[in-house]
Here is the input.
Amino acid sequence: MKGLKAKEIEEKLEIHGDKRVDEFFWMKNHPEDKDVMEHLKKENDFVSEVLDSEVKDELYRELKGRKIPNESSVPAKDGDYYYYVRFEKDKEYAIHCRKKGQDGDEVIILDENELAEGKEYFSLGSLEVSPNDELMAYSCDTDGSEVYTFFFKDLKTGKILKDKLENAYTGLSWYKDNKTVLYTILDDSQRPYAVMQYTLGESEGAEPRKIYEVDNAEYFAGVDTSSDQKFLYLSAYGSVTNETWYVPSEDSSQKPKLVLPKKRGVEYFPEHKDGQFFMLINDSHPNFRLISLSVGETDVKEAKEVISPSDDCFLDQGSFFKDFFVIEAKVKGLSQINFHRYNGESFHSMEFPDEVYSAHLSENYEWEAQTVRYKYSSLKTVPQTLEYELKTKKTNVLKVKEVPHFNSQDYECQRLWASSHDGKLIPVSILKKKDVEGPRPLVLYGYGAYGVNIDPSFDDEILPLVERGFVYAIAHVRGSATLGRPWYLDGKFFNKKNSFYDFQAAAECLIEKGFTKKGEICLSGGSAGGLLVCATMNLCPDLYKGVIGDVPFVDVVTTMLDKSLPLTQMEYEEWGNPEEKDYYDYIKSYSPYDNIEKRSYPHVLLTAGLNDPRVTYWEPMKFVSRLRKLRTDDGHSLLYTNLDGGHAGASGRYEALKEISLQYSFILKIFKKDLSS
Here is the structure.
């Protein structure tokens, strides 16, 4: 099924003596070229024609039926109040609440449904309550562009203040005077480039003050607050390098001071306790170590090593409290949660029951806490909120998420190790029903970039496929940090193709082990994971039945040569700079759009967000148009664009399910499965 034919206007692109012709280059010219929107709408209409609306609607009802209508989080203590989020039946967005004391009356501090009323898209960026609990700052994005506006609310009266901060990014930190804040603003390319200071109630026309600027486009500006509330942090962060400055939270007149100077390839994350910065840093080993350094000392050689680095243990992140700290680590691809004294002594490690699982700290706001909250789940174990008591050494289950129509005893999860092209063993996490035997249709998911890990956590949204006999697998390919920081480094720059070879190796292993068979696999991934699935498809198209790329990064060469985009220069540390010939040649050799050939391909569904600032809508638009033009078979080449959203797709909790149901209706169609299968 060929589908729509897009107009072609040849654009000749030349660099390093290499000439490319892009016949769909014009597609980036929205809104100037009216044909862009017209074509996107036709593509959406074509998707509606191809995919059965009744199947999609039934899948949507099934997905929605697994959501508890009146869901609520466990209240978490922060100062005098307990904060929590809840949802109400048939409402799309969260309601943020607090109560004074565990038995206090509920007070709604922010209802996202009211803010979203009448809007096609709504996203809450951040919500920050002032130190005295009386004021609240919150930021909103109403078109998916990730350009936020901050508003301020008086929590005593419920009134919205006149103060408003526009053209902002998500983060904000309060000074202890309860009227001055730090936040970041965007430049013309939508990069958060400067930290601004603003005092509420200043005279009309008073402008926020710029106190820190990141003039290198390879870095974003950010703000944060130390766990002990003593300092506010101002940072410049890139893909693999960062630098942090600090100001005392009690004095808004102080200028920022440096924690450690920037060094290419080194990241560090400071926390403060009693005049010392404790920080995870990868200066001497890619898997990080923990050091302490006196406040004001900027020479890392003067630091004391608290936890030494290890080849086998990746120190992923730390949470710091008055009397102890907790390190979340990765060992053999699995999460560990380890408790330490400030002298480095380890005094407790969590144990978990499943073969593959996800475990992370969550909602620990109190500096003087003697309990630590964390969340646990696995591919077959529903999410649990738990709390560990240091004094009694007891673990209390605070909540087990209710998932209708699900019995964990009907499922099994396991881990395989697939041998890649160079002999490296790739972990693969698998979920299937126990009564499913023999080769089955399989969905293989992956991401593989930025050191981001896709944990094998519970996802009720995959159940409609698994219930129908599909096997679901996650390949933890290089480019992630599943097996430590070196695992990430071995999947970027001139090693990027390792990610694609690993993904293909996972597919071949799943075939060899009898979980599926050749031509019965659908690849799935989003954003950089969209690059993964489309580049892997190009390696061996005949291996796969279908490919789903959610807002996929597929036009890598052209995007990485476009400095007007917000992420391009920051991404040099991930993919390389194609203005250098060696990087250009290597990126071009795998860029999915540049490697579509005249041949047969799997069925393909790509999605886009019209206002997406991370992966522009025209990347999947161009890819589908060229694929449809060159493929020699009658397979589907489909594009669905959310015309009101951005990188995250639809914003409401139920609206998002409609996009998932569209993808699942595509999967059932290409595998020729009906709803009862």
User: Anything to note?
Assistant: The radius of gyration is 25 Å. The CA atoms of residues 92 and 441 lie 33 Å apart. The mean pLDDT is 96.
